[in-house]
Amino acid sequence: xxxxxxxxxxxxxxxxxxxxxxxxxxxxxxxxxxxxxxxxxxxxxxxxxxxxxxxxxxxxxxxxxxxxxxxxxxxxxxxxxxxxxxxxxxxxxxxxxxxxxxxxxxxxxxxxxxxxxxxxxxxxxxxxxxxxxxxxxxxxxxxxxxxxxxxxxxxxxxxxxxxxxxxxxxxxxxxxxxxxxxxxxxxxxxxxxxxxxxxxxxxxxxxxxxxxxxxxxxxxxxxxxxxxxxxxxxxxxxxxxxxxxxxxxxxxxxxxxxxxxxxxxxxxxxxxxxxxxxxxxxxxxxxxxxxxxxxxxxxxxxxxxxxxxxxxxxxxxxxxxxxxxxxxxxxxxxxxxxxxxxxxxxxxxxxxxxxxxxxxxxxxxxxxxxxxxxxxxxxxxxxxxxxxxxxxxxxxxxxxxxxxxxxxxxxxxxxxxxxxxxxxxxxxxxxxxxxxxxxxxxxxxxx
Amino acid sequence: xxxxxxxxxxxxxxxxxxxxxxxxxxxxxxxxxxxxxxxxxxxxxxxxxxxxxxxxxxxxxxxxxxxxxxxxxxxxxxxxxxxxxxxxxxxxxxxxxxxxxxxxxxxxxxxxxxxxxxxxxxxxxxxxxxxxxxxxxxxxxxxxxxxxxxxxxxxxxxxxxxxxxxxxxxxxxxxxxxxxxxxxxxxxxxxxxxxxxxxxxxxxxxxxxxxxxxxxxxxxxxxxxxxxxxxxxxxxxxxxxxxxxxxxxxxxxxxxxxxxxxxxxxxxxxxxxxxxxxxxxxxxxxxxxxxxxxxxxxxxxxxxxxxxxxxxxx
Lengths: 447, 314
What we know:
The complex is a heterodimer. Chain A has helices at residues 2-16, 19-44, 80-89, 120-141, 146-152, 174-209, 212-216, 221-265, 271-275, 284-307, 310-338, 346-366, 373-380, 385-392, 399-427, 437-445, and strands at residues 50-56, 71-74, 95-99, 111-114, 160-163, 169-172. By secondary structure, chain A is an alpha/beta fold. Chain A has a 4-stranded mixed β-sheet with strand order 2-1-3-4, with helices on one face. Chain A has a two-stranded antiparallel ribbon with strand order 5-6. In chain A, helix 6 (174-209) packs antiparallel against helix 12, helix 11 (310-338) runs parallel beside helix 15 and helix 15 (399-427) crosses helix 16. Chain B is 35% helix and 29% strand. In chain B, strand 12 (249-254) and strand 13 form a beta hairpin.
């Protein structure tokens, strides 16, 4: 036992001290933070200035297209051709918007003629404004006035509630469950792959180094294998924890920075406005309604966050995170032991990677139907359960299913480790031989 | 010499899918000796060594360590230097040596103290903080040798210990081996290098095609392979010598004609050396008369060839 401790310690320390570990630990949260920050930053720095000449033969839109911060319309009394010329001749104008005479009856054929490609936001803004206005024109023509239209506008938000065995209802939030489920599924998937492959590499390294024979003359091969697997699991957990700590600090720090920046530099604008700048400016009433709705949504979100059983989710996440890794890493170790170098691993990797990728693909099906028989079975079978069960848990899973799935996962782990151990102890001493599945089967039956 | 055996294998057999590695192998390694494990490539030496190290288990047969059934606890009393050796390339020398010694059951403090002693002895203190990949092959081997003997095993198994060493380091390792023997360590020494067998070994076992075909004390084996052959240095002519052998001896070979000549003669018909000498001293002037004792190399080749021939015949 003492020796396994030594092995775990070595596996852990050599990896944690590696430059690549430190780089990945720092880079991971930066990438995660970038995922949040870059879109905001892009939206903020959109200096998509566009000066557009409008030639409106229908006279419906003249002086009705409103400027935004970076889109400016002018309505010259000129022909289309001379407008085109002035776009070409001067840098003051970027494009000509041509609206033909019969726009009400045939809404197609509005042209934007440019010499400098306008951004997608400019195009979308023009399209939205024109189609909105056209709608209003048409409605007005058929005798419906503005007030009626506003009064008819209705926003719907479905309230979903989970009915449990006792008959009491609890508010749930399907989107939130989906996000939590999918996120944990993806993390487990990544963890299995990243660290399973590290186990395999470690085994191949010892084999090609030829240090293996020295070590197994001191400890049992099984102890070496388990020491390696556990050591690397600890490396994974360390990295994972560091990521959580680092990325949450990064995200909160950057968020406050961004907000401060906005309040100082551009008074009157805030993040939400920038984000929604591409939408048409809604009348006051609508905005107020929207805000109310948003507030309601937030309240509801908070309420459903409270209904999510976080201790259960966190506990089972840790369990499946480790269980999924353990059940596969032993197999990765067996593959590493059977080959002489990494290039030969391909043929044996397939049976390991297929169930992992399969569960990952099935996760997107399960998430839409977490209670179906298929979802049930996939979350019970040990090879798919780590990812699938984690996807299901936020939707609420009966405790007996969870218990069964966990018990089977533990059994599965014992089973794969036993199989892998037998392949491993023969494989690590085999050199220069192309190994087939038949050969592996023979190794399994040695005593 | 202490006659207690440190290791004993009784009727050990081991089979791998499709081929027999060891069949009915029995050897006894007396404590405090250097025991040569000889044999052609693929004869089964490595299989036997791995069984002693409990890397693999035999299919049949019993293994005893100092009279007890061999078990995991004995691993701490065994040191093993495999033929194919290596270290973690990215790990620092000192750290790695410490790790390997701790795996053999030494406490960190003990291991540190002993490593210091050996590193000073071999004058390699400056390697401590280096990564193994920065060392030459010979340097890495030295480190590995130290790690193998550091926990002062009762039984040391060295598989081709001199491969990869230059003559100077070979001598250094040789004297270390002899010193360890003086301290009472038993050494199983597997090699193809028959010169070093003659120099170092007290006992040998020769394995061929998974069987022990020859074993015993080196002196006794060489005696067994004596063939009443003598080398005669003399002055005179070859003709005279040949004629004088009579029915006592048979000329096997001779050197060129000249002032000093030599011939190799085998006694035949149960003659004694005195009878032979009595005859030839009348014809030529004898300057030297020595028994030709077969070298381990000759014995090795003879034994293996004889065995292979017998197998073919059978």
